[in-house]
Description:
Layout (H helix, E strand, L loop, with lengths): L2 H4 L9 H7 L3 H19 L6 H10 L1 H12 L1
Amino acid sequence: MSFGHVVQKDGNLRALSIIGDMLTSKDDIVKTVEEMYGMIWFLAGKEVGREKQTVEDARKQYREGLKIAKKVNG
């Protein structure tokens, strides 16, 4: 399992019920979370000197991030 499995071809997150059904083992969950964690820190690394604050801002505003994804992906 990976990010690519929980996101549709159009870039939107699959329905949470579908994701729950797909992530059937602890290994699947760990691999998916690890990949997303790495992606978050990779993106935060573009804000040199502000990485921790960038991640914290994203954590606090994740719902806004979901709205942005919907807007971008249609």
